[in-house]
Amino acid sequence: MNFTSLKFTSLLLLLQLLGGVALADPLLEDSDWLKTMAFAAHQTNYSGVFVYQSGGRVETSRITHISDKDGEHERLEGLDGLRREVIRNNDNVWLYVGGKKVRVEKRRSQRTFPALLPEQIQSLKDNYQISQGEEDRVADYHAHTLIFQPKDKLRYTRKMWAHSQSGLLLKAVVQDEHGGIIEEYSFSQLTIGDKDIDRKWIKQDQILPNSKSIEVPNVAQKLATTSFWQVDFLPSGFRKVLEINRTLAEKNNSVVHMVYSDGLSGISVFIEKATGAKNVTGLSGRGAIHMYNRLAGDNLITVVGEVPPRVVIQVADSVRLAGE
Question: Is the pLDDT of residue 312 over 90?
């Protein structure tokens, strides 16, 4: 796992809802509905196949989620290409690639499909106009549709289809300012409830038959309350949710990693010493995620965000040493 992959993985992990009986319009103003949406993906037992689409890229995955007296258990299997599987027991995560087992660090974020909404709802109301869309059907389940329209042009519009009974997120779309679809997650097949859901994979120590372990790159981490670096520009509503110092042992290189979120979108800022091949600057992107690198003296600043490209550039250009 190289550092560029680590950047995208950190955000993507930052970056993946939702319940009740059939709803009337007035309930859209009731924060209890949004709270139900936020907790449903963690409290509901389900198993299904979902498709991720962005541009010409399509990925199919199977996800199984169980909530019981021991907490949350989740299994995510990639159904395309090389066999890959992620198994989670609460915050302990195991990754399997091509039959080899990798133990990865404890999970810090809970925002992966279909768990996209935060527990704190007020920030969403501060930064998005939330309205109800059309009634629909997804994976043969009746769904209510919610639209999150940003109050500025510094983030994307999001549209979400929630199962009208369990509240589980069935489909999620990110749209640009013209209504074009940037990326989409959607269940194509789904079982909600305990019926016919396999639980044999739920173990405290996940070991696949005949698997071989491979080493995870040695990444030492420590939480940081503050650093010498300052970010002067962030869209309104973005708040720091994490700051850590990473040390990549193979390069003996320290990396400052700061994470900001408005409740739906995330922005990560990475600061490290610029060395050799890492001195690559410019903008790149994949789906709703954009990455921008720039040099600041002998430091490389990288910003990765689920926001329009001009925003990651503005954020990166505003990063400076405190006091300068």
Answer: yes
